[in-house]
Amino acid sequence: MKPMLIAASLGFLVATPAFGQADELAVEGPTRFDAVPTEAVSPFGGLSLTPTRLVLEPGDSRGEVTLYNSGGDTVTYRVEDVELEALSQGGYAPLDEGADAPDWSASRYLRYAPRQVTLGPGERQVVRVISRAPRDLDAGEFRSHLRFSSIPTVAPVDELEDEATTEESTSVEVRVGLEYRITIPVILRTGEGAMGTEIQSAQVEAQPDSDGTRVLVTLNRTGDWADHGVVRVYDAAGEEIGLLRGVSVLAPLQTRVVFVPVTVTGAVPARVVFETDENNAELIASADIS
Fold first, then answer.
1. Count of C-beta atoms within a 10 Å radius of residue 20
2. Res 170: pLDDT
3. Residue 72: how many CA atoms within 13 Å on its side-chain side?
4. What's the CA gap between 11 and 55, in Å, rounded?
5. Contact assessment for residue 155 and residue 172, using Cβ atoms and an 8 Å cutoff
6. Three-class SS of residue 166?
7. What does DSSP say about strands 140-150 and 75-82: parallel, antiparallel, or unpaired?
8. Residue 165: CB partners within 8 Å, gap ≥ 6?
9. Is 63 a residue whose pLDDT tops 50?
10. What is the structure's pLDDT at 70?
11. How far is Cα 224 from Cα 239, in angstroms, rounded to an integer?
């Protein structure tokens, strides 16, 4: 019986450490934690991690992702790099089997450790990401993904009480555990670039198979680096009636289409804004809705 696969793409990374990098990639073993941070993603199985999106700015030589086991069992997690294509209407898709790493892949410039982690209940482990990008690279943005997968448990359920049982009569039952996955983007920015995004258009349309409406927003990336933020929809009175988080136009895309559901029945969308997803949000772009 094959293990069931459950995947969460919040949307990693990489290559084998080069000789002489052992100290740079050295990490401490698992430690205890008091509580999982509120911003950590924890969709299932006791597997939690933070951040959910790692960005290495120009000059940053390293970053960290912390993995938490908030469940009740000891679990081993595998850490591996994955190349995923960003889709213009959101989400990611795997590359064709056997395809070479694309130009936008960050994996050639990244190293990470450890590759496998075993955590008991209530333990955490830091996975260290090291950037080896040359300093003379032009302004640009590279991306790979880091995937954390629990290794399915396969273990005997019953111990045989009669040690004299013959081989022909022996029956061993096994329990096959679920394999849980979380995949996050790792973004590497290079050179002396800047972010920039504009709203090309925004229009109202009916939601498929629903009586509700949504706003179709087309975003264009105008900068070397992708903005990352939220799209908000307001009515004519300035009341927020729609919200979509985690929006960006990732390389190699220049254009991204997003659909923002209108959450207030009967409300008429009038304006859309794209802003940073922070406490002190900064406006990136805005437009009237046609």
1. 7
2. 40
3. 0
4. 13
5. no
6. coil
7. antiparallel
8. none
9. yes
10. 85
11. 33
